Amino acid sequence: VGMALNPLSKASGIPLLGIVGHRDLVKENPYAIRFFPSSDEEGTVLARKAFEMGFKNLAVVTLQDEWTEALSDAFINEAQRLGATIQIHEKILPSDSDFLPLLARLRKASFDALYLSHSFTQSGILIRKLRDQHIGQQIFSNTWAGKRETIEAAGKQAIEGTLYAEP
To answer: Model pTM?
Structure first.
């Protein structure tokens, strides 16, 4: 919603105070004020952590949404800058709930860590299905991974060990 209101704020000169992480919120609107870390900061921190832990062959799964795509872009750019390789990058729709084709592609890919950039409801379900399919690589995720809804949807055993950045 914040990104949709951004051009209106700029055109009208009305301040936009937003808990919006997308990097472009304040880029061209002098009236926009962000009260949340930018997507560049969050994605970059997680990529550095993955690289620091020795993960250099990565998979990325992204929800097709402005914020989650910006997070994945930042993660991928920083990971590649550090020398990591993105083995697979899959994008899914917000309405997707059947992850079997995605899980099959991930099972065939060779990666040692996975970055999930999703909504909290999809993240939890996807994490549970990954673990149910014995896909056990380290998972990095966006801030939604720490939310109660995600933990409940995944189950505590499945989500245990998932790393995320908390703003």
So the answer is: 0.82
Structure confidence by residue, pLDDT tens digits, 139-163: 999 888 888 898 899 999 998 999 8
Cross-strand bridge partners of residue 42: none
First to last CA, the chain: 19
Residue 48: exposure state from Cβ atoms within 10 A (0-12, 13-18, ≥19): middle
Q: Are strands 32-34 and 163-164 parallel, antiparallel or unpaired?
A: unpaired
d(CA 64, CA 107): 21
Do 142 and 164 contact (CB within 8 A), yes or no? yes
Q: 23 by DSSP, 3-state: which?
A: coil
CB atoms within 10 A of CB 23: 21
CB 59 within 8 A of CB 106: yes
